[in-house]
Amino acid sequence: MTARELISTVPILQPSDAGAKALRLMNEYHLTQLPMVVENKYMALVEEDQIMDLEEPEIKLESIQYNGANRPAIQEGAHLFEALKLFYEFKLSVLPVVTKENDYLGIITKDNLLAALAQYNGAKEAGGILALEMDPRDYSLSEIARIAESNDVTLLSVNTLTDPSGKLEVLLKTNRQELHSLVATYERFNYTIKYIYAEEQEEDLLKKNYDLLMNYISM
């Protein structure tokens, strides 16, 4: 999924706009940042805190000092994981999407990004969640997948995280709610099970959590 596929359309700001107008639009669209565009060229990402620092609400946005840190953007053909990286690095609520020539196309909102990630991670699919813990040198996705397949379990998504101690956590989202046999097989191959959400009664909880996520995204 590319950045262009995640675009939302929101009002743009111009240097001649007053701070009060920018704050009004941010409030209306529940955002803390909006793009400044001049003749269809992306110029900067205006932040709510910058406007609040203005001495008067009617002062124009062109009076704000902008630098490279105020111009985060992503090219239209970039993958959504690159967008996720930029959201994290710049602590964004929106991310402008541009062409190679810096033509402004629209923005990616945090809500749209969360919805896309939910699809990639199989969050809306019923199934158990299993976390393995291991040394990074012992990680073999092919073996982990082979063990799952031998138990007639499909891995809907695989995510990894290295904790402060250097251990690797491998999070498996599966298509099966009952995972006792899979857990037993992983343990037989000397894998450490960190945690598991796989009891039958957990199905309603997983669905509830997904519904809560979707409700949040639609707010």
From TrEMBL:
Keywords: CBS domain
InterPro entries reported in the protein's UniProt record: CBS_dom, CBS_dom_sf
Domain of life: Bacteria
Pfam families hit by this protein: CBS
Official protein name in the record: CBS domain-containing protein
Organism: Chitinophaga fulva
Residues covered by the CBS domain: 66-125
